[in-house]
Structures are given as structure tokens and as C-alpha cells.
Amino acid sequence: MLAGKHVLLIIGGGIAAYKALDLIRRLRERDCMVTPVLTDGGAEFVTPLSVSSLAGGKVYRDLFDLTDEAEMGHISLSRASDLIVVAPATADLMAKMAAGLAGDLATTLLLATDTPVLIAPAMNVRMWTHAATQRNLITLRDDGVMCVGPNEGDMACGEYGPGRLAEPLEIVAAIENVLRDGLLKGRHVVVTSGPTHEPIDPVRYIANRSSGAQGTAIAAALVGLGAEVTFVTGPAEVPPPAGVKVVAVETALEMQTAVREALPADAAVFAAAVADWHVTSASDSKLKKQVGKLPTLQLSENPDILAEVAQMQSGRPALVVGFAAETDDVIANATAKRARKGCDWILANDVSPDTGIMGGTENAVTLIREEGADTWPRMSKDLVARKFAQMLAEALAK
Ligand code: C5P
Asked: pLDDT (tens digit, 9 = 90+) per residue, 77-116?
């Protein structure tokens, strides 16, 4: 599906730059055209000759190279492709992008473009987790930049943790997700995912064990079919997928506002594990422990976001889907929930501890619709997501 597509690949200066060579090879195998831009840092790790040989064409290096300007100015170079991929995206490059700097060819292209941008960060784990990098990541996401990885693992510098460049085939899959024209092209789907955190005071909160894995897989599968996805996520363990518009929230009330702002949509999928209650008046300062005295927490009910959207009088998405995590009488409870909430479908799963589903990689679901319950065989959360996205696309097409 990448045949005939055109990727502008910016290679940043990190030890993972060698993987960019394999990425070029993988893209070219798929008949995808690659125009490489090698930063000065990148050229310390891979040679211009190996990059241009693999890409089968010129490698762009310098903003002030008049030959390049005569052949193709940097503005048109930045806009001629279907997607700009930055791999590896170093901490320095991310910071420059977030700040809007344009001191060399790569950053000028990134600032001058209206083409979608996908970054694949790679850096030392402490640099990745540093507040400055995380702040830059949020800024970039707000600017619509998509992100794949980084992965967790052993690092070239001898440390362990998140910061490894996503593998070339994962980057290819993310590129395919972004560039695919699918059944859901032109459709907007809102997906909620992850847990919510309800503050007790500035340091304590009420939460639940949702990892966000299933909601993330569903959002990725919807993007895979070409949907425009607004991904409203609580503080999840798994990173959001590439190709979605991420709206990060903490609490149920923030999630409600984000969902309202994300509408209208053709479909809404509520995979988040929203807390049922919040602390009525969370304290602005840390509650002090007092010997022999227990604090009293007064709780208020959170809004039911799924029910609110499912029961909208006007502007209701054509398909509203809820989730039901049950430990017993799964079908009966989920069927009752579908009626109570007023949604079209409920994806129900058995989360009894012995199933290993909560936080695991597999899921066993039953889809409850008006016409009845359909129990799927146990399969990976990715496969559940793809099957579900296909059914959602077919339902919208009716
Ligand atoms: O009522 P219960 O929490 O079991 O319902 C689960 C479904 O409702 C999920 O789809 C969840 O995302 C949604 N929900 C919601 N807002 C809440 C509680 C649940 O959207 N406050």
C-alpha cells in the first residue's frame, strides 16, 4: 500500500541512525519513494554515500546548497512528499521542532511544511524521561506531530529503559497507518482510553488498573482504515498510537469536556475505564497524617460520558460503543448495560483475575448488539481491535 507514496526521511544524529538505513531499504522494498535529508549529526553516524545508495537518489544536506535550491527549493522539498518522517528524532531535534527553530535544512523543512510529520524518537533513557523532552513531546503532539516509539530495552549507552528507536518494521507500520486510504477515510471517530486519575490532594489520587492497551489498539486499527481519530486518553501505561490526534486528560470531568469538544463525530468508542467517583473537594495542599485520626473523603459521582453521548438529542454520533468489564454473568450484565446507557454496541469482556486479561495482551470479548450477543474466540488485543474496526467501518457504510 506504500507503492507510489513519497516519504521525506530526516535522519537525526544518534547511534540509532544506522537503523534509518534499514528503514530506507524496507520502504523501497514496498516501492515507496524516499528522499533522504541527513543532518550534520546524522552524518557522524551514517555516510551520505550509504544513504543515497539505499535511497536510490540524492541525499539533501545543506540549506545553502544552491544546486539544491536550483533543482528544488527547500519549500517545495518540504511539501513534495506525502509524509515527513524523522528517524531517529533526537532530543535536540525534538526541542528545535518544539521551539520552531530553523537553523539548518532539516529544521527549516519541518517548519516550512504543511505535510504530516511522524517522529521516531531515540535517545538515552534519562534524556527521554527528562521533563524538558516530555514537555517538548506534548508541544509537538499539540502541533499535530505523530510519534512512533520509543521502545523500552537495552540502550547503546549501557542503560535500560524507554529510548530505543522503534524497529524499522514498526516505523513502516506506523507510516502505513498514516498513509492508508481505507474504508473509514473521511470519517471522524472519537476514542476514549486508559484510566482516569481522581485527585485526593496534589500527591494522591484514586485510579484503576486499566493499561489503555485495548483502547490504543482500537484507535490504531481505526487509523489503519483511514479514520481521523481523536484519542482522548487518561494516564495510560501504553503510549498513544501514531496517526491520532491525542487529547491527554487526567480526570473524568476533563475527559467529559474533551469528548464534548471533540464532537461531532461519525462514531464514538468509549474504551476508557472512567472512575465512578471523584473526591468532592480535593485538597490543594497535601493532607497531613495525624496520629489516631483518619481523613474523611467525601465522594461525588462522575458524569457518565458514554450515557451522555449515547443519549444526545441532536448531533449524536451514528454509532456509539461502550465497553463492559465484567467478572460474572458477562452477557446478561452487558446486555442490561447496553439498554441502560442507550448505546448501540457494547464490547464486553470477562476481567476475572484468572483470565489474565486486565493488563495482558489477549482479550476474550462478546459483542452485544440489538440483534444479540456474539462471542469471539480469545485472541490478541490487536486482532480484537482490527476485527472491531472492520465491523465499525461496515456499520457506518450501511
Ligand atoms: O458503567 P460502567 O463503568 O460499567 O460502563 C462502562 C462503559 O461506560 C465504558 O464504555 C466506559 O468507557 C463508559 N463510562 C463513561 N463514563 C463513566 C463511566 C463509564 O464513559 N463515568
From this structure: 887 888 999 999 999 999 999 999 999 999 999 998 878 8
Phi-psi region of 314 (alpha: psi -120 to 50; beta: other; left: phi over 0): beta
Domain encompassing residue 42: 6-179
Query: Does 304 contact ligand 1 (Cβ within 6 A)?
Result: yes
pLDDT at 154: 82
pTM: predicted TM-score of the whole model, two decimal places? 0.66
- In 3D space, the residue among 109, 93, 94, 88 whose CA is nearest the CA of residue 8 turns out to be 109
The answer on 287 and 323 residing in a single domain is: yes
Residue in 192, 193, 270, 312 to alter for ligand 1 test, most ligand atoms within 8 A of Cβ = 270
CA atoms within 13 A on the CB side of 322: 26
Cβ atoms of residues 103 and 28 within 8 Å:
no
What's the CA gap between 207 and 200, in Å, rounded?
11
Same-domain pairing of 173 and 232: no
**Could you tell me if the CB of 198 is within 6 A of ligand 1?**
no
Identify the three-state secondary structure at position 103. Answer: coil
Residue 169 CB partners (closer than 8 Å, separation 6+) = 26
Handedness of CA 337, 217, 395, 364 (dihedral sign): negative
